[in-house]
Amino acid sequence: QVSLVESGGGLVQAGGSLNLSCAASGRTYTRYAMGWFRRAPGKEREFVAGISWSGGNTHYRESVKGRFTISRDNGKSTVYLQMDSLKPEDTAVYYCAATAGQYFDSRRERWTYWGQGTQVTVSS
């Protein structure tokens, strides 16, 4: 069992930055690949980024490549999403997730554990 709690969301102007955190608890946390998803108003939840259990491999959706960076600190049981050059279309609720499968799997049903989400709003 893994419990996830996100933080760090907020309101930012276009071009600004935010750093999301996801605190994980559970003895088996380090066995899981971790990821971030988001759900914009009126849209489906979509994959944003994933990171392997070791942190050595990452994968991003095309629209955030070069702007977002996912990382993890297993000593602190925390996953991060650094978001730079934010755009209004990045506005969404951002969710942290964990999977025993592949870090690059964008299918929501493959991710077992979810946080409650944190709101990110980017104004133009």
Question: Which features does this protein show?
Answer:
single chain, 124 residues, mainly beta, 4-stranded antiparallel sheet, 11 strands
Uncertain ranges: none
Overall geometry: globular
Structural class designation: mainly beta
Distance between the termini: 40 Å
Give the H and E element order: EEEEEEEEEEE
Beta strand %: over 45%
Give the radius of gyration: 13 Å
Give the biggest sheet. 7 strands, mixed
Share of helix, binned = under 10%
The DSSP helix count reads 0
| Number of separate strands | 11
Mean pLDDT across residues: 96
Give an overview of the whole structure.
There is one protein chain. The chain is mainly beta and 124 residues long. 0% of the residues lie in helices and 49% in strands. It has strands spanning 3-7, 10-13, 18-25, 33-39, 46-51, 58-60, 68-73, 78-83, 92-99, 113-114, 118-123. The strands form two sheets. Strands 2, 4, 5, 6, 9, 10 and 11 form a seven-stranded mixed β-sheet that branches. The protein has a four-stranded antiparallel β-sheet with strand order 1-3-8-7, with no helix packed on it. Strand 4 and strand 5 (46-51) form a beta hairpin. 34% of the residues are buried.
